[in-house]
Amino acid sequence: MHSLRTHTCGELRREHIGHPVRLSGWLHRKRDHGNLLFLDVRDHYGITQCVLDGSSPLFKTAEALRLESVITVAGKVVPRAPGAVNPRLATGEVELPVDALSVQSSAEPLPLQVNSDAEFPEETRLRYRFLDLRREKLHGNIVLRSRVIASIRRRMIEAGFIEFQTPILTSSSPEGARDYLVPSRVHPGKFYALPQAPQQFKQLLMTAGFDRYFQIAPCFRDEDGRADRSPGEFYQLDFEMSFVTQEDVFAAIEPVLHGVFEEFAGGAAVTPAPFPRIPFAEAMAKYGTDKPDLRNPLLIADVTDVFRDSSFAPFATAIAAGAVVRAVPAPDASGQPRSFFDKLGQWAREQGAPGLGYVVLADGGAKGPIAKFVDADRLARLGAATGGREGDALFFVCDRQPAAEKLAGRVRARLGEDLGLVERNAFRFCWVTDFPMYELNEDTKRIEFSHNPFSMPQGGLDALERSDPLTIKAYQYDIVCNGVELSSGAIRNHRPDIMYKAFAIAGYSRDEVEARFGGMLNAFKYGAPPHGGSAPGIDRIVMLLAGETNIREVIAFPMNQQAQDVLMQAPGPVPPERLKELHIKLDLPSVDSGRES
C-alpha cells in the first residue's frame, strides 16, 4: 500500500466498502461524541469522515490534534448507518474507521477558520492567503479559473489562432496608465517597462506575417485597485488578426466567449451571437454609461425639449444655460410608498445632485412635486419620449450633458435593482462601438487619445486633416457583459502617415513618435496588413462566472488596495549595495511632508 494515500478524500464510494485504504489530508473538522471521535479529513478533491472508538489507543492523539493539521489515516471502508448518510458529501455513504494514524504536520492556532464561510478582514485573508485558499469557495474559484483558461485556449486553437509569448521586459508605452519601471544594471540610467499590454508586439506579429495570434497575457499597470480591477497585474485573452474588419473580429471572438460562458454558466442564459452593437453615443444616451448592463430593461430618454421654456424654472433656466434633462422611467411605481421616492432623492443628494424631480403618471394626469409644472401637452410628450404608462413614475436629471448622463445611468441602475427588474441568472453581452478618437482633458485643455492610440480613425487620413478632432470616431470597440467591461479592442492604424498625423493631434512630435514607437513604425514602412483584435480580461470573465463582485476572489495571490502583497511583503526595501549596482539613489519624501503625491 502507498505510504501516504491509496485514494483521495473525495474518492470513496459504496463500492469501496471492505477495502483497506490510506488517506492523507488536512483535519477539517472534529466532533467528539464521548466514546466516538469523528474526524473529517479534507484534501483538494473532497472530504471523508473518519471515526475513532474511545477504546482506540489513537484516540488521545487524535483528540489533541488542532484543526488543519496534516494527517495520514488508514483502515477499512465501512457503510454509514442509514440515519447517518450525508447526501451533501460525495463520500457521504461511507466512513473510515481509523486503524492507523500518523501526524505529518501539526498546525498552530488558526488566524482564520478554514471550515466555515465566516467573514474575516481582507488584510487577514491576504496575509494568510494560503489558509484562505483552503476554504471551499475560494478554492473552487481558483479551480474554475484554471478550467476557464483551458477552455479558452482550446477554443482559440480550434478557431485557427496560434499561441505566442511576447516580452515582459520592454519599453514604455502611452497606454493610459503608469508603467512599472525596471532599472537596467548594464545600461545605467535606463529602464525597461513591464508591458501594460502586448499591444506593439502583437501588431508586429501581424506585420511579420502571422495571421492569427493569441496568448493568455500578463499585463502590468501601476494604478489604483478597485472591485473589478486588481492593482499591479492582471491577465487577458490577448488576440490579433490580419486582413480583417471590425465585424470579422466580432465574428471570431463571439463564439469563444459564448461557448465559455455556456460551458461554465451553470444553466444561466447567455446572449447568442451576434451580440448587440451599441454605438458609444447611443450607450451614453440610453444607458448613461459605456458599460451598459442589458439585464436591466430601463432606457433613459432625452426630454430636454419637453422642459425647454417651461414654467418649471429650475429646468428651464438650466436648459437655457446649456444643460440637458434626462428621464428615467420606473414601471408600476405608483404603488410605492412616499419613502421610496424620498430615499431615492436622498441617495441622489449623496451622489452630489440637488435631488431628483419626478412625476407619477396616474388618473390620466400626473402627480408629484413638479406635476403642476407639466401641462397636458408636455405630459403627452413625456409619455411619448419615455414610453411611460399609467402607474409609472418618471425621474428627471438636469445638468450638463456628461454629468446628466452619468447620474441618469446611476439612477437607472438603482431603479433596476430596487424594483427587481434586473434579469437574474443571465449573462448579457453587447459591443459598444464608434468611440471618439480623441477627448478634451478638462484640466489641461489639451486633446488626448480617448481610447487606444494605435486605433484607425474612421475616415482615415482625410478625417484627421479636415475634421474637428473631437468629432472623429475610431474603429474602437468594447465588449461588455452584465455591465462589466471585459475588454477594449480596435482595428489598428497600420499606416505610418496616418499614425504621424494621429499622434500630432494629441501633441506628439514626429521625433517623439519615432523615439517611442520606432520599432513598430519601422515595421509598418515595409508593408503592414490591415489588422485588429481585442483582449478580454481573464480575471473579469472568471469573476462573472463565479458570481463574485470583487476580483480578488478569483486571483490566487492578489495585492491589496494599496498595491501591497502583505503575504510576501512586497514592495520592500533592497540593500544599498543592490541600489548602487543599479546606479540608483533614493530621493524619498521626508517624514514631515506627508504622503507622497
Provide structural commentary:
The chain has about 600 residues and is an alpha+beta fold. Helices cover about 30% and strands about 25% of the residues. Strands 8-11-12-26-25-24-21-14 form an 8-stranded mixed sheet. The longest helix has 23 residues, at about 135-160. It is globular and about 90 Å long. The N and C termini lie far apart (about 65 Å).
Number of helical elements = 17
Order of strands across the biggest sheet? 8-11-12-26-25-24-21-14
Oligomer: single chain
Shape: globular
Strand content: 15-25%
- Indicate the percent of residues in helices: 25-40%
SS-derived structural category? alpha+beta
- Mean pLDDT rating: 94
Low-confidence stretches: none
User: What is the CA-CA span between the terminal residues?
Assistant: 63 Å
- Overall strand count: 26
Largest sheet: 8 strands, mixed
- Gyration radius, rounded: 30 Å
What would you say about this model in short?
This protein has 597 residues and is α+β, with helices and mostly antiparallel strands. The protein is built from 17 helices and 26 strands. Helix 7 (280-287) packs across helix 12 and helix 14 (496-505) runs antiparallel to helix 15.
Descriptive terms for the model:
eight-stranded mixed sheet; seven-stranded mixed sheet; alpha+beta; 29% helix; 597 residues
Topology:
Blueprint: E1 20-32, E2 36-43, E3 46-53, H1 59-64, E4 70-76, E5 78-79, E6 94-97, E7 100-105, H2 122-127, H3 129-132, H4 136-158, E8 162-163, E9 181-183, E10 191-193, H5 199-207, E11 212-221, E12 232-242, H6 246-264, E13 269-270, E14 277-279, H7 280-287, E15 301-302, H8 304-307, H9 313-320, E16 324-330, H10 338-350, E17 357-362, E18 365-367, H11 376-386, E19 393-399, H12 401-418, E20 426-427, E21 429-433, E22 438-440, E23 447-449, H13 460-466, E24 476-481, E25 484-491, H14 496-505, H15 510-524, E26 531-534, H16 538-546, H17 576-581
